[in-house]
Structures are given as C-alpha cells and as structure tokens.
Amino acid sequence: MAEDLTFENLELLAQRRGLTLPQEELQKLLPGVIRARRQAAELRDLLARGDEPAGVFKAARGAGK
Amino acid sequence: MEQSELCYLTIADAAAGLRRKQFSAIELTDACLDRIDALDGKLHSFITITGDLALEQARQAEKELRAGTDRGPLHGIPIALKDLYATKGIRTTCHSAVLENWIPDHDATTAVKLQQAGTVLLGKLGMHEFAFGGPSVDAPFPAVRNPWNTAHIPGGSSSGSGAALAAGFCYGALGSDTGGSIRTPSSHCGIVGIKPTYGRCSRYGVIPLGWSLDHTGPMARSVEDCAIMLQVLAGYDPKDNASANVPVPNFQAGMKDGIKGLRVGVPRKNWFDENLGIDPQTEAAFDQALKVLESLGTTIVDIDGKPFSLARKANQTILLCEAYAYHEKTYQQTPLKFGSSVRRRMLEGAFLSAADYLTAQRARAVLNDQIRANFAGVDVFAVPGAARPPEPFAGLDPNEQNMRPSFTNPFNLTGLPAISVPCGFTQENLPAGLQIVAPPFDEAACFRVAYAYEQATEWHKHRPAVS
C-alpha cells in the first residue's frame, strides 16, 4: 500500500528501475511518490470486475492506422 | 495607427485591415517584432525569435494578397508556436537542457497547416519544461512572467503563448494541453484558448507529455480568433494515431446566434470545495459570469461534481505513467539534465505500477460515461478556468495546486472540448477565466456560448500595462 512506502523502499525501487539519484533527491521525491500511489490506489474503489480500460487494442485498425 | 493599437488587433480585424490595405503584413510583422524587442526582456515569453523568416514570410504574404491570391483569414497574420512543436530547421527545445540544441528535420502537422494558411512565424515560445511541473527556474531559459504582474506566474504549461498574446506580441499562438496547459495560461493571462476534442487536431510532431491525454489547440485574444485558427488546424491526420477521421464543421456557423434556451450544467457540489477549495475571488467572478449567462437566456442546472473530482486522480495517474515512459531512458542516463520541478513530478511515474496505470485507464472509461451522461440534461458545462488566481513566484509551492480542485483535468480525461474566456479580475488586477465544455466534437457549442458571454462583457478588452 502507498502508506507503507518508506525512504528505504523508495531507494530500493529506484535501484531496480535503473535510476541513480542522490539521497537528497530521493528524500524530496518521497512525498510526491506517496501522494501519486495513494491517488492511484483510490481509483480501485470505483471499479467493478467487468470494467475494461479506456484504451483497448483494435485489430481492425491495423498497422497502417 | 499606433504600435500598441496595431499589435492588439484581433485576427479578424487584422485580416480585414490587410484586405482594405490599411496596413501591410510587413507592417504587422514589424510592429510585433519591435514590441517583442522592446518588452520581452521582462516577460521572457520567446525562446527563439525568427525575425528574418517572419519578414520573408510577411513579404511573400503581402505579395500574394496584392496579386489577389488569398489563402484565408490567417494570411499575413503573425503567430508563434509553443516550443514543443517541431519546426524544420528551427531549434525546438521544450524549454529544456535535454533538447537545448535540437533542430528538427520535420514540421509538426499543425505548423504546416499554419504555414499553408499563410501565417507569419515570429518564433518559438517558452513553456513549462516538457509541458510539466511548474515554472522552469533552473532550465537554460528563464521562466515566463505574467504581463499583468511580472511577479506572478502566467500559468502553464503554455506560459509563453498566454503571456505573448496578453502582451500584444502576436495575434495567435499554439498551445498544448494534457491537464490544462492551454486553459490555465489563458485564464491567468486574460486571453482565450480552446482545447478541442481529443483527436480533432493532429499531435504529429508535438513532443508528447501523455499520449492518451495530449491535445493541441489555438490561443488568441478573442473567441472568434480561436474559431478562425481551429478551422485551419482541425482535421484528420494519418500521421497521428489518435487523429479522428470525422468531418470538420464550420466553427463560426451559429456562433453569433445567441444562447437563449440553452441549459448550462454546473458541477459545483462535491467538487468546488474539495481540500482547500476554490479561491473566493475566483468563485465570485465565476458566479457573476453565471448570472451573465442567465441574463442571456440560459438556464443554470446543478449537476453532481463527484465524477469530475475523481477524474483528476485518473488523469494524473495516466499522465505520470505515460510521461515517465516517454522520458525513461533519459532519466536513467542523465536525470539531472531535467530541471528540478519537472524532474520530481515526472519521477513520481517511475514508482507507479502497471496495475496502477490500467486501473486508471479502467476508471477513465467509467468516469467518462458518468460525466458524459450529464449531456442528457444540459447542453454545456460551465466551470472556472482555474481554481485560484496566478500565484506569485515568491514562495511558489508546486504541491499546493494538488490541494485545490482541478477544473481542467477532467476534460483531458474525457477528451471533451473546453474553452477558457476572460471573466473578470481580482482586487490585485489578475485575470480569471470562465470555462465552457461541450459534448465531443461540438467545439461550435463552446464557441457559441463563449462568444455570447464575451460580447456581453468587457473583460476581453482589458490590456495589461506592459512597459
């Protein structure tokens, strides 16, 4: 959950994503990341099992657009 | 005609004057270039000025017009482009050190359309770096200032477009809008800007922020001018995967027919008061605007704001994921090349999951249905252009905007056309905007309502004291 994200978790996640960021930069990033993850999590309550994403692949459109 | 009078003409009036030979395209261009030279040192609205090209295009336009070759109302009109529209042979920076010296080998489709319409390109305009974050205080180019008060931000991300128009540097400009980037600077600078329906105008050759939310569109000093520009810009483009292959109507047809009998939906409940809520002066200007719409024969209808409020969360999640996906490689290689504001906002997207992105896209489908369902009972929506007046640079807190309702995000998520028109000033003489939102591909309804409002008020005639 978003609330569980700590500085140490963020540092680990950054490494896994190939991001080399100074500790000070990561510290400044933490509140925004928590907010973004919390925001995304809140959307889950809106959905029913059958709801599909807005963007879906349409085979008929083909490579030629 | 004095320089400032000439520079503040509308496109419609400048086009008429050119055909009456009151002045030439060269005189219009010279007036704009002189004004930019004299005043832009305080505003920083331009990153690149293409003076020689502009004069060459103006001479060509003048020659054609005198020979009877008329390419339409934009022929000979000086315009400028936000610096994320690719321009062949002209530096295109996105206001970033990452692209500081990039010279594209191609033109954006919309730039080509404006060239073919005979416009004169004055240059490329400042913006928020990569159209995201906030004013770019540590980018290689200075942050754009608001002509109404240079201590205040002009709004973004199309900040240079808003400031240049308000300062009388050009007659029309292109902006782009992923979460409000045309409408916010239009509101903050006291000008008009429309985000058309998603897919109405090509995005080809425009540096993406969030592919599924990005819109291109015109900004100008009047509703009619925006309609004139959109007429040229709209249309199917096979080079743009999201381009809509739908007919382009005459956007000015019915624009001057009045709005008696229309129903205007206002989604105030469950939205305007979220978190810190809307600024009281901004809300007062909006309420006064609703009274004007009522006096013109419309009926104001309250609608539920909850889905509009939730739309921001989905819009932001999608935007963060798509923006990071586009820039990921650069972030991994040279993260500190981005300015601090955009760097921190975009990196938030690195820590969202695939499930987060898809959840937001699922929520988008649900919220889109809920929001559009309101059109069964109303013709258009009316909301403020921004939640608060333009903030001062001093003490600017980029996180504070997240504590106020976003009146622009929901219409990126739903792709609905939305126009911002000036609707008043605060006690500090800073502009406010009224936003009119219409059903998909009904930009004409935006123009009709905004034009009726504009003509019933005097706000669009106010000019900042730039000196």
Please explain how this structure is put together:
The complex is a heterodimer of chains A (65) and B (467). By secondary structure, chain A is mostly helical. Chain A has one domain. In chain A, 46% of the residues lie in helices and 0% in strands. Chain A contains 2 helices and no strands. Chain A has helices at residues 7-16, 23-42. The radius of gyration of chain A is 18 Å and the shape is elongated. The N and C termini of chain A lie far apart (39 Å). The mean pLDDT of chain A is 86. Chain B has 467 residues and is α/β, with parallel strands linked by helices. Chain B has a single domain, classed as Amidase signature (AS) domain (Amidase signature (AS) enzymes, Alpha-Beta Complex). Chain B is 37% helix and 13% strand. Chain B has an 11-stranded mixed beta sheet with strand order 1-3-2-4-6-5-10-11-9-7-8, with helices on both faces. In chain B, helix 6 (159-166) packs parallel to helix 7 and helix 10 packs antiparallel against helix 12. Chain B is globular.
Condensed summary:
Chain A has 65 residues and is mainly alpha-helical. Helix content of chain A is 46%, strand content 0%. Helix content of chain B is 37%, strand content 13%.
